[in-house]
Write a structure and sequence with these properties.
InterPro entries: Cbl-indep_Met_Synth_N, Cobalamin-indep_Met_synthase, Met_Synth_C/arc, UROD/MetE-like_sf. The chain is an alpha/beta fold and 762 residues long. The protein folds into 2 domains: 385 residues, TIM Barrel (Alpha-Beta Barrel); 328 residues, Alpha-Beta Barrel (TIM Barrel), CATH 3.20.20.210. Helices cover 42% and strands 12% of the residues. The protein contains 27 helices and 20 strands. Helix 23 runs parallel beside helix 24. The longest helix is centred in the first third of the chain and has 22 residues. Bound molecules: glutamine and zinc ion. Glutamine (GLN) binds next to loops.
Length: 762
């Protein structure tokens, strides 16, 4: 049965609540402060209000089942009976679900990883030979019932079988999960039948994996899987949603099946417009044209989007206006930003569109397309005026910044070769072999949290806040001296977040008050918005670091965040290449390193934990990215003398794809997450020709477990098998911010003892 087409929709919506109501309810439930009924009532109200907003705004098809207590991939695993067996004993389905998400005293949670190239994290389903799939459609069906009872033109959204399996990992020696797609097809067919019986006219199957490198090889599977599902007799009309890039060969494959609609992201890869326009693939289908950017925060260029719709109008049987991807990745509403705009960012808010404003843009565009532009000329006029104001804004173009960048690029790095630098640094620093250090942050104490809250509430002034932070720093310095650590840190108590801290101090960035975006589960972040050329008005870290340095004779590391990581965790400009924005941030960081050096700081660490995160989804795009990313890091770190030692820190990833880039960063010392991969990273680095100093993490800081001295010694000896002693540093895997003080002290004590024991045996 073919359902009527629709003309305006979005692929998904935020779900944490406009005021993070869901976060509070779920965390309350975990603590026992909110009961099950309370949790469910909050969730139902959020769904109801969201649907009402979408219908009220004028969408004629509304995505449902986008709600989740934690994560949509975990929801899909639950729906397909693929939760790990270790949670099976937990009888209650909600508690079982949360156990898989976050573990219990006895159960380890599923692993979490990044959702494509966004900052959302999903839970990785585990598929073993023993996994026997079975359909549990209660959530999808219940959600549909609710929506239909409310009179919503519901389009349930479900993760498609190819994406689900591609994102899963094989465990217990099982083969590639994708090979098991035929086991899922009967379940999806049954689900389609049940949805149709319940009154669903449309269903949206999300297949973002089709835009990735892995997706390039899936066209045949796409034709087979969707050929099969679309052949089902009893089903709603099927929309397959691709997003985060161009669908590539999958477009033809989808076109060859009997599905009714395809969604294409026309923002991420502008070439997708021509690819769709040139392909006859969609002649009998509805095309959801993703012309409104679902994951960045800028107002849409309505004229350009309308022109795109015009270009595409002949290439499909019908066109619907949509977002490029789910709006999960942007905050709820610009209209929720009510405080006066911060100095330096006046007027910028008018340039922005969050979820609510993007829904309105979809409707305006659809009306322009169907009723003609005059019907919405006022909206088009307003949008054009705002865009013109943005384009002409002087803050977008700072000649001083651009001229300096050009000069620095022209003169090159100026630092000596790594080997020569190592010699002068060794002389200056006089460190023992296998020097010990930590990654930057120390445990967030209660006193730090209280001080921050007191400052925010106006109970203390800035001077008192600084005094309390300095007391924290003094404690951390003393602790490190007592432990016998060689290279100290100040502990980063003054930083709420390693990116936000710098964004708040740099011109060209706007912080939001309510711009929360789900990162994972109940964790939300407020990414800063980079809107203009980046200017550093004054030193950002020097007074903290010099305060710490003056307390000790041992070297204290200056701590900065690198340009790639600052961009990766912000909303970025869409009016210039990311590489240009990165270099501007790099220039500000470079100026900071020079100021730190002048203040007597001998070692400066520039963290790039997100280096891997911005890696393009398609292999062909990766070399260019890695080129500018590493060049930008070198720009940020090459302003100092050869005897100032530059460290960097990398974590959160499998480094395979970026191993060559790590060498290209050319930091004097690289600390890198390694404990969980048992030092294998060192062999990989050697093979990539990396010959600088390295600090493979000798213990995992993601768990409260205290490593024994023997374990750390064993790690160190393993590391010495790959790296000579004069290139090896000793440090934990990552910052210690999330750990308790007691376990941290115990772990570091064992780490130092292990380093001393191994040193003695050299
Ligand atoms: N210097 C930071 C810290 O120690 C690094 C954090 C990170 O790698 N994510 O907290
Ligand atoms: Zn780290």
């Amino acid at each position: 049965m073919t359902a009527p087409n629709f003309s305006r929709t979005v692929l998904g919506v935020p779900r944490i609540g406009p005021r993070r109501e869901l976060k509070r309810a779920i965390e309350g439930y975990w603590k026992g402060a909110v009961d099950r009924a309370g949790l469910e009532a909050t969730a139902a109200a959020l769904r109801r209000e969201e649907w009402a907003r979408l219908v009220g705004a004028g969408l004629d098809s509304v995505p449902t089942n986008t709600f989740s207590y934690y994560d949509q991939i975990l929801d899909t695993a639950a729906m397909l009976g693929a939760l790990p067996p270790r949670v099976a004993e937990i009888a209650d389905p909600v508690d079982r679900y949360f156990a898989a998400a976050r573990g219990t005293a006895t159960v380890t949670p599923l692993e979490m990883t990044k959702w494509f190239d966004t900052n959302y994290h999903y839970l990785v389903p585990e598929i073993s030979a023993a996994t026997s799939f079975a359909l549990h459609p209660e959530k999808v069906l219940g959600d549909l019932d609710e929506a239909l009872a409310q009179g919503v033109p519901a389009r349930p959204v479900v993760v498609g079988p190819l994406t689900f399996l591609a994102l899963s990992k094989a465990v217990d020696g099982a083969g590639d999960p994708l090979a098991r797609v035929d086991e899922l097809l009967p379940l999806y067919r049954e689900l389609l039948g049940r949805l149709a019986n319940r009154g669903a006219q449309w269903v949206q199957l999300d297949e973002p994996v089709l835009v990735t490198e892995a997706g390039l090889g899936l066209a045949e599977e796409v034709a087979r899987v969707y050929g099969d599902l679309s052949a089902a007799a009893n089903r709603p009309s099927i929309l397959v949603a691709t997003y985060f890039g161009s669908p590539g060969p999958s477009l033809e494959a989808l076109g060859s099946t009997r599905i009714e609609a395809v969604a294409v992201d026309l923002v991420t890869d502008p070439a997708a417009v021509d690819a769709v326009a040139a392909a006859p693939a969609l002649q009998d289908k509805l095309l959801l044209a993703g012309v409104v950017d679902g994951r960045n925060v800028w107002r849409t260029d309505l004229e350009k989007a309308l022109a795109t719709l015009g270009t595409l109008s002949g290439s499909a049987a019908a066109l619907a206006v949509s977002t490029s991807c789910s709006l999960l990745h942007v905050p709820y509403a610009v209209s929720a930003e009510t405080a006066p705009e911060p100095t330096g960012a006046e007027g910028v808010r008018a340039w922005l569109a969050f979820a609510e404003e993007k829904v309105a843009e979809v409707v305006v565009l659809s009306r322009a397309f169907t009723e003609g532009r005059p019907a919405v000329s006022a909206e088009f006029g307003r949008s054009a005026a705002v865009r013109a104001a943005r384009e002409g804004d002087p803050r977008l173009h700072d000649d001083a910044v651009r001229d300096r960048l050009r000069d620095i690029r022209a003169t090159g790095s100026g630092r000596a070769a790594a080997g020569e630098r190592a010699v002068v640094q060794r002389e200056r620093l006089g460190l023992p072999p296998l020097p010990t250090t930590t990654i930057g942050s120390y445990p967030q104490t209660g006193a730090i949290r209280v001080a921050r809250a007191d400052l925010r509430a106006g109970r203390i002034d800035e001077a008192e806040y600084v005094r309390r932070m300095r007391a924290e720093i003094a404690d951390v310095v003393k602790l490190q001296e007592d432990l016998g650590i060689d290279v100290l840190v100040h502990g980063e108590p003054e930083r709420n977040d390693m990116v936000q801290y710098f964004a708040e101090r740099l011109g060209g960035f706007l912080a939001t008050d309510n711009g929360w975006v789900q990162s994972y589960g109940t964790r939300c972040v407020r990414p800063p918005i980079l809107f203009g050329d980046v200017r550093r008005a004054e030193p950002m870290t020097v007074s903290w670091i010099t305060y710490a340095q003056n307390l000790t004779d041992r070297p204290v590391k200056g701590m900065l965040t690198g340009p790639v990581t600052i961009l990766a965790w912000s909303f970025v400009r869409d009016d210039q290449p990311l590489a240009d924005s990165a270099d501007q941030v790099a220039l500000a960081i470079r100026d900071e390193t020079v100021d730190l050096e002048e203040a007597g700081v001998r070692i400066i660490q520039v963290d790039e934990p997100a280096l891997r995160e911005l890696l393009p989804l398609l292999a062909a795009d990766r070399p260019a990215y890695l080129d500018w990313a590493t060049a930008s890091f070198r720009l940020s770190t090459s302003g100092v003398d050869d005897d100032t030692q530059i460290h960097t820190h990398l974590c959160y990833s499998e480094f395979g794809d970026v191993i060559g880039a790590i060498a290209d960063l050319d930091a004097d010392v690289t600390s890198i997450e390694a404990a969980r991969s048992r030092m294998e990273i060192l062999g990989d680095l050697n093979r990539a020709g990396f010959a600088n100093q390295v600090g493979p993490g000798v213990y995992d800081i993601h768990s409260p477990r205290v490593p024994t001295q023997d374990e750390v010694e064993a790690s160190l000896r393993a590391a010495l098998g790959a790296v000579p002693a004069d290139r090896l540093w000793v440090n934990p895997d990552c910052g210690l911010k999330t750990r308790g003080t007691e376990e941290t002290v115990a772990a570091l004590r064992n780490m130092v003892a292990a380093a001393e024991a191994v040193r003695a045996s050299l």
